[in-house]
Fold this sequence. Notes:
Layout: H1 10-36, H2 46-59, H3 62-70, H4 77-102, H5 105-113, H6 120-148, H7 157-179, H8 192-219, H9 225-256, H10 259-269, H11 279-297, H12 299-303, H13 305-330, H14 347-379
Helix pairs in contact: 1-14, 2-4, 2-7, 2-8, 2-13, 3-4, 3-7, 4-6, 4-14, 6-7, 7-8, 8-9, 8-13, 9-11, 11-13
Amino acid sequence: MLEKALTGSKWYWGWMAVLLVFIGVGIASYVMEAEVGLSNDVPWGLFIGQYAFFVGIAASAVMVVLPYYLHDFKEFGNMTLLGEFLAVVAVMMTGLFILADMGQPQRFFNLFLHPSPSSVLFWTSSALIIYMLLNILIGWTTLGAHHKGVPPPAWIKPFIYISIPWAFSIHTTTAFVFAGLPGKPFWLTALMAARFLASAFASGPALLIICCLLLRSVARFEVGREAIQTLAKFVAYAMVANVFFIGLELFTAFYSQIPAHMQSFQYLLFGFEGYGRLVHLMWFSNIMAALALVLLILAGTRRKEGSLFIGCLAVFISILIEKGFALVVGGFVPNAFNQITEYWPTGTEVLITLGIWATGFFFLSVLYKVTLSVKEEIEA
């Protein structure tokens, strides 16, 4: 079926060509990073933030898989494959961000060549790989069955049921990578896993809705209005939970006046001791979160696809900033010596990140092109 990705309009090939250019720039920047380094004093930055964010995008596939397979919600039929393939690509991107952060590819393989059961990173990496394989198996087998005009084979159902709790596990273990570090009070909270899951179940489905609306516009692929509106309600509820959990953290930090926990929030939201490089970015994230809540909670705006698109985009941007960047940076301010070292991504980091994003969109475009072609054949 992959041969279906080799045919398309000039717009399709133009889009793929642009992505290949960004991929090439990203590879060149990665080679430069391996030779000269990044010259940052903060060990975790943009790459690890993006890793945490895209694990959430991957985990969010369960929001369509669970209703479709366990509750027989047939309206998610056309959307489920898109969600599973989005999860595959998101997991691939998390691996690329880990590779970029490590600097040298062989270091990544040491996780498995010399495993350490006490390392949370070992467990979350293993869980991610298994989750990606599960979604590849489920998605490709189901798409192949549709292509042949037959129902999916019975043997695939156990793998589907396994993938549902596995989706929760990959983001829970990712949260433990942060919450398991006693030297970082900003991350040392029992709410970290709950925050990660809430943000995942908001940002991932929001991105899936955006993809569905764009596919309808450019490829006339229809997943159904009821499916989109139902998923939009999931996004609204999850975003409410995400904002509520962050509010709990703010109350705990500022009411208790525990300096180690409070100072990171002060730095992010108001600046601290004259440093405040991320303040404007964080308030932009907060504004996007407020806009998303208004547009998605109110039924009138949620039912209009224009405002729904803006609301989902606001969710995606808000969580991308807060979880995909600020959460990691805030954990290092102040550092273990009670000093402040501000972080901002270097040009090389930005180019590598854009290259990884382009790689993800490239493979997502291939998988969606195959899916849409199979659906068109079935309808014909």
